[in-house]
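re: that chain from earlier
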Amino acid sequence: MAQPDTSNSAVWLVLLDCLPPHFPDSSAASAATAADNPAWHPCDDLDAQGVCFEQYYSQNPTAHCSVADYLGGAEAFRIFLNRLQAAGKGCHYRTLDAIQPSATTHESGLLVFTAAGCDCPETLATALLQIRSLHAQHSEPQHRPALIITSIKGGSRPLPEHFDCPCTESEIRVPLWILANHLQAARIQMLCGSHDLLPTIADLLALPDHPEIPGTLPSQNTIHRPNTPRSLLQLSTLHPESLERILTIHGNCWTGLRTQHYFLVQTPASQLDTADSQNRRLFQKPDDYWNVNNCLSACEEIARAMLLAAGHSPGIPD
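^ sequence. v structure.
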């Protein structure tokens, strides 16, 4: 029996600039739909309707991160665009607050929506309402584009008193939602990052394989490096412990390596005014949410193994 075609003619990627972790107080929610429920969050509906990746990390949460940087860098994005073009599809950009009623959103390929000011819950709710309304304009559900929603960074939370860390978990880890007709709503704990989005979009669009791309849909016999971008549609079928992964994350003044159980952060020695051996910190996950308990002295071999597995020398991660 022939397998049903689950590919999409288009994928909409919604990149919000900042996703607040919660409403700051009940008054902030008063203008929202669920004013009588201060705990309500604009993204709650997405949890029930899409595949939610809860261990998703923005791998370049810097102040001036471009779409290409966010998705894996200029070279990876160039190759992806070549694949799109070879398949007769295009890549288009829209700003959510600039969408006009007459603007067409029916192009095949990738359509990237960006929205600013989403650290404000009201702005976030408005942006999500706008994108869902545009999405619903496709009257036949089976022809609606696949929808991917996430943000470049998360909202910062105040650290406990007397604690210090180079970065907070809430800024680099944000939820990711994928809504597509053939995907059942689920919550996935697999470690993944923003560099996995290009292989995922290629998977959703059923783009042909290309030897230039390390994240091209793999055969079962392909051996991947731990930091190779992978399609989230494939990762979602695996158990979190079944695949060793390493994500490289670049912040404004630090670089980190994240595995399922550890987060290694490197800060330039000049910034800490310390010896090179002292500008590295290792945090255990998921226990140390705040990234404040440096366990490097007891786990130096783990840090070294992480660097080597990611293809780095035991110096500063690239």
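The first helix runs from residue 44 to 49.
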